[in-house]
Design goal:
By secondary structure, the chain is an alpha+beta fold. 22% of the residues lie in helices and 25% in strands.
Length: 138
Amino acid sequence: MARSIKQTTRTLIRSLAVAAVTGTMVGSSAALAATWTTVANSGTAIPSGGGAQFSSFGQPSINNKCTVVFRGRSKGPSEPVRGVFNGNPCNATPVAKTAAAGDVVPQPNNLAAVFNEFPAFPRIDIRGDFVATRGQST
């Protein structure tokens, strides 16, 4: 009998947890039904890109301040511009460069090296503007 009470209690707790998660998801879906705003598109000029335009993008990250960070790149014919960029469509902040290939790797690990690629999508602090990404160098 004690076993069935435990099982019943676990089932009840799981059901309440599922209901709470479902309620949160349903409640959150109204917030997701907002107006979409473009941060950057193919053809948008890349900041500090010498006139190059975005041609492809990596997965973006967004925080609760509406700041979006993403990996972006241009096409050739010369060496494509590539890096991590940010913008905030909620307050009409234009796209800015966070880091790009050719930039000096910051201290303390730079050894006078420059970034040559950003192979992972950037993440941003949910409540702030701290960005973490992986950058490769020589």
